[in-house]
Amino acid sequence: MLKAGVLGAGHLGKIHLRLLNESNKYKLVGFYDPNKENAKKVAAEYGYTAFDSIQDLIDAVDVVDIVTPTLSHHDCAVQAIKSGKHIFIEKPISNSVEEAEEIIQLAKEFNVKGQVGHVERFNPAFTAVKDQFDSPMFIETHRLAEFNPRGTDVPVVLDLMIHDIDAILSVVPSKVKSVSASGVSVISDTPDIANARIEFENGCVANLTSSRISLKNMRKSRFFQKDAYISVDFLTKKCEVVKMKDAPENPGDFDMILQNAEGVKKQIYFNNPEVKANNAILDELETFADAINNNTQPIVTLEDGTEALRIAHQIIDCFKN
């Protein structure tokens, strides 16, 4: 079992602590939190070992799970990597692309593995359909959240939209050609609502909308590709796949048939895969353990996290123009 420690014992950090403690692929050694009062409270309430410094924790483990505020991701990662430890780092990978690139370079230099916590890649509705993506050419996403002051220290793009950016980049087999966007600050110092358009070199277009001042929560993505429409509801963990094929010569009474202006007939049918319940955070942590133990590539690499951050910052730069 890999010895693991968590940096940061806030809301998400406590979830990571619980799951690492339950996992049969890790041995939870303890955690470090700079807020001494919070550290004492978490240690007393859950029985986890609180370390006195970041380095003390790093020295005691094989894997460092970084669940601190984004501004400290880089420094924590660098310290862990230089100590020869593997790192799991929450999204976004760091505050800037330059910091992220340094993390990548150091991980190669010190021969350690890293994974970024883009948890929607492990959402069961997304994993159920991932094998059915075949060069989608139009994508539309809506990620709306009710107001929560906990995330307003960063723009809504880094808080919410980056989930969809990463998911889109993982299914479009092409480089990004251009980015345009607009954003509005309603209650925060940074935009609370944003809309972005990402155009790819292969002609694919993705429209993304994110809001953190919505009256209801929504996390839906729709993918359109030749002869298929794929819908993923990340919130309800449901998916729908609608496909088309050449219509039979003698369709049944209940077959759905479309005929275009040229007289070509297509049959519409549903091919909805089974969605298997899971704990996405546990899955991302345990697949990282598998990557370390088997010396394979993590599912969400440091490079993946960096590319999602790069596009996110291009979107944010659009707000300044």
From TrEMBL:
Record domain GFO/IDH/MocA-like oxidoreductase: where: 148-216
Gfo/Idh/MocA-like oxidoreductase N-terminal domain: residues covered: 3-118
Superkingdom of source: Bacteria
A Pfam family reported for this protein in Swiss-Prot or TrEMBL: GFO_IDH_MocA_C3
Name of the protein in its database record: Gfo/Idh/MocA family protein
Species of the source: Pseudofulvibacter geojedonensis
